[in-house]
Amino acid sequence: MQKRRVAAAMSLLILAAGSAHGQTATAPFAFEVASVKPDLSDTGVDKIRIAKGDVIIQNVSLRRLISMAYSIPDSREYLLSGPDWLDSERFDILARYPQDTPDQGVLIMLQSLLGERFNLAVHRETRQIPGYALVTGKSGPKLHSAARPGPFPMFRALSGHASGSSISMPDLADRLSRTPFGLERPVVEFTGLTGRFDLTLDWSPIDRQGENPNGPSIFTALEEQLGLKLEPRKLPLEILIVDKVNKTPTDN
């Protein structure tokens, strides 16, 4: 539940301050108190809790912290460009904020905190990224309208089988970008199809030799079962570029 709340807040945030020149946003929002320390637990377990005036973040990578602060979903790591060590360095953050602060304000506070403690500076630019365009196949789409269309899609994908209800084409493209499908590239929707759909998809995951020994590849399955196609393309995407950042935060 909390993860959905944070994701919703990130989608609402408009980086009006600082986004044009890549500096951390300056705003009337600021944490009342904040502690930032390297994580020494070595447990492999991370935690993010933001609610009721408290921020509790444990064992979270700096890449994820930056992504969260600047509204980049977990499934779109390719939208953030920075040094490799952003994935390996992990931190704990404890902070307090007024409970009446809007969700957008909390994220701006996090931007400011990263700027102050890590000397973080960023900017945005459009780059051509190798990816896939999700388009309709030659025979046209083979999709079934959702039996119960609604704003909250349900989707599961595991071991070569996926099923979803009330899925839009942007939803599907976003899901195809994720780990279970093994594409390792972003997928962007270009079908132009509106509405929501119920669907199932079965494919043979790529093995370690890069082959599909037991069935259709994800490319073949999409076209045969859903009438959709993945076309390799260079996609113009807005990327958040890390200009500078310190490995060690300043003292609390």
Structural write-up:
- Helix 2 packs across helix 3 (103-118).
- It contains five helices and twelve strands.
- The strands form three sheets. The protein has a four-stranded antiparallel sheet.
- The protein is of the alpha+beta class.
- The chain folds into two domains: 2-119, no CATH class; 128-237, no CATH class.
- It has helices at 2-12, 62-69, 103-118, 169-176, 218-226; strands at 33-38, 47-51, 54-61, 80-81, 90-96, 121-136, 144-145, 154-158, 161-167, 187-189, 197-202, 228-244.
- It starts with a helix and ends in an 8-residue tail after the last strand.
- Helices cover 21% and strands 33% of the residues.
- Mean pLDDT is 86; it is low at 1-27.
Strand content: 25-35%
- Write the H/E string, N to C: HEEEHEEHEEEEHEEHE
Low-pLDDT segments, ≥5 res: 1-27
> Which percent range fits the helix content?
10-25%
Q: What overall form do the CA principal axes indicate? A: elongated
Summarize model confidence as the mean pLDDT. Answer: 86
Quaternary structure annotation: single chain
User: How many structural domains in the coordinates?
Assistant: 2
The strands making up the biggest β-sheet line up spatially as 1-5-3-2
The SS-based structural class is alpha+beta
Largest sheet: 4 strands, antiparallel
> What integer value in Å does the Rg equal?
20 Å
**Span of the ends, CA to CA:** 30 Å
Outline of the structure:
The chain has helices spanning 2-12, 62-69, 103-118, 169-176, 218-226; strands spanning 33-38, 47-51, 54-61, 80-81, 90-96, 121-136, 144-145, 154-158, 161-167, 187-189, 197-202, 228-244. The protein is an alpha+beta fold.
